[in-house]
Amino acid sequence: MTRINRNFTKLPGGYLFPEIGRRVRAFSAEGAPMPLIRLGIGDVTLPLAPAVIQAMHRATEEMGRRETFRGYCEETCGAYDFLRFAIRDSYLARGTRVDDDEIFVSDGAKSDCGNIGDIFSADNVVAVCDPVYPVYVDTSAMAGRAGEYDGEKWTGLVYLPCTAENGFFPALPEGKAPDLIYICSPNNPTGAAATREQLKTWVDYANAHGSVILYDSAYEAFITRPGIPHSIYEVEGARTCAIEFRSFSKTAGFTGTRCAYTVVPKDLVREGVSLNALWNRRQGTKFNGVSYVIQRAAEATFTPEGQAQIRQSIDYYLNNARVIREGLQAAGLTVYGGVDAPYIWCRTPDGAGSWEFFDRLLRQACVVTTPGAGFGPSGEGYIRLTAFGDAGATEEAVARIQRIL
Ligand SMILES: *Cc1c(COP(=O)(O)O)cnc(C)c1O
User: Fold this and answer.
1) In Å, what is the CA distance from 385 to each residue of 28, 82, 364, 368?
2) How far apart are CA 357 and CA 383, in angstroms?
3) pLDDT at position 300, please?
4) Dihedral sign of CA atoms 251, 257, 259, 260 in order
5) For residue 229, is pLDDT > 80?
6) CA distances from 22 to 28, 308, 357, 374, 380 (A)
């Protein structure tokens, strides 16, 4: 008889977004007095840049001619040199050396953040920030690294609280060091971006204990403050302890197009084995690369024209973030994030629970947000708002919230 992976049966089964959907549908069915404005979504809304579309057209034409048709890509794990070199050069433009054979192109940072677990022993202890992007937690649970779910937390995970008191950046844990440490900066959901000094404490810790940092910088392009690292490799010592995940999803609107990359430095060695070689073996075996058309599209984001165009979209979202941040502040709320990230992390007023405040904003302002408690225990008492919406609708949502407070 076939036995299933029992770890999957331990998963609490997608609570947050289904529950939001249920509440929103119930309210709509009762007859919402105004059209709903959704500031809960973590998805982009602006179309792809013209330079990207042109590159896709050109590549599609190539695929339709025998002389320029492409099948399997024979280059590194299905990634074309033209894209890996462009990525390498984009690091170099910020003064960071990343070799082209350290760059692995994939269909998404979400898949890579989860799949990376394949190259590590099942008994590694995983640390996650709290609140957290749920992918790190659920994929750790699927791999048997999370223990049991007790209704609030996983018994096998180390939770690193990120609170207003610590500036939403985790303190080093006490006791035995975790083996794998997920850090996301700029952060989803809190919008906080780590400073060089903050990252350095973790890099030194990981090097001292032989841990590996799994660094998700999917939102690096949203950093506006000078001096905030865009890559963990800007921090001395990171090449011997960190793997970095990046994506074209939020940077260039590729959420439906699919392209991302992961950097595994050749200096990163554990138990005498190169993690770069292991990941190369893993991807080479289980993954045949991203479509040629999409790799050309991703390449186009690095041209001067492409850079200027994707910058416009990022600035549009960052302006929404400013409107939300300043508008909620003016309404007397305490808000964080929204400066180096498209997320605003807002304290609920008068000690309200995050679901309670979510319901109030839904029912009185017809604005959909995300309750912070859905991202982990330390998210209680907060809601997340996203800046990915339409500028006019975002202003309207903020005005409505101001009226009801
Ligand atoms: C959106 C997001 C990603 C990007 O995932 P893709 O699979 O590349 O679309 C990665 N990490 C975080 C924290 C995100 O919010």
Assistant:
1) 20, 37, 16, 8
2) 8
3) 98
4) positive
5) yes
6) 10, 40, 16, 14, 20
Q: Pairing relation of β-strands 158-161 and 180-184?
A: unpaired
Cβ neighbors of 340 (< 8 A, separation 6 or more) are: 186, 191, 192, 193, 219, 222, 223, 224, 225, 228
Q: Which residue has the tokens 């990343």?
A: 98
CATH number of 12-47+305-404: 3.90.1150.10
Residues 244-261, mean pLDDT to the nearest whole number: 98
Is the confidence at residue 15, as pLDDT, over 80?
no
Report how far ligand 1's centroid is from the alpha carbon of 324 (Å): 22
| Rounded Cα distance, 319 and 249, in Å | 19
So where are the chain's domains?
Answer: 12-47+305-404, 52-302
Q: CA–CA separation, 17 vs 286, rounded Å?
A: 30
Give the atom of ligand 1 at the shortest distance from the alpha carbon of 112: 7
**Structure token pair of residue 172:** 């080093």
Cβ atoms of 197 and 229 within 8 Å: the answer is: no
* 188 pLDDT higher than 80: yes
Strand 370-371's sheet: what is its strand order? Answer: 335-337, 343-347, 382-386, 370-371
Q: Mind listing the pLDDT tens digit for each residue in 121-172?
A: 999 999 999 999 999 999 999 999 999 999 889 999 999 999 999 999 999 9
* Residues at CB less than 6 angstroms from ligand 1: 42, 108-110, 133, 184, 188, 216, 218, 247, 249-250, 255, 260
Pairing of strands 382-386, 370-371: antiparallel
What CATH number does the domain located at 52-302 have?
Answer: 3.40.640.10
- The answer to whether 224 and 268 have CB atoms below 8 angstroms apart is no
pTM: 0.97
Cα 221 to ligand 1 centroid, rounded to whole Å? 13
Q: Ligand 1 centroid vs 148 CA: distance in angstroms? A: 26
- Prior bond to 131 cis, omega within 30? yes
Token pair recorded at residue 33 = 């007095």
CA distance 174 to 212: 17
